[in-house]
Prior knowledge:
Layout: E1 3-7, E2 10-13, E3 18-25, E4 34-39, E5 46-51, E6 58-60, E7 68-73, E8 78-83, E9 92-99, E10 111-114, E11 118-123
Parallel strand pairs: 2-11
Antiparallel strand pairs: 1-3, 3-8, 4-5, 4-9, 5-6, 7-8, 9-10, 9-11
Amino acid sequence: QVQLLESGGGLVQAGGSLRLSCEASGRTFSVYGMGWFRQAPGKEREFVATINWNGGNTHCADSVKGRFTISRDNAKNTVYLQMNSLKPEDTAVYYCASANIATMALNVGEYVFWGQGTQVTVSS
């Protein structure tokens, strides 16, 4: 049974930082691309960042580029999202996901397993 367990969310003031972690189990973590998505109340789930199987390639959404960084540690079966210079509009539930391909994946349909989500709230 594949499980993705996110942690690190919380309440932070605008301009602050948080680091989200997602630990995977039940699947060979190191051969698949991983991603982070977020969903704000009343909005659709949106792409945030993705990373390929070995961490050599990453891509972030324009809305977070320069502020967020995705990384992974295959020895720990964990993917991270470092979030700096947070803004109130970053407030959302953040989900990590495991793709069905080794490369980066930008679309929801390319992911087969999802975590339960972690809440990030940025106050102004």
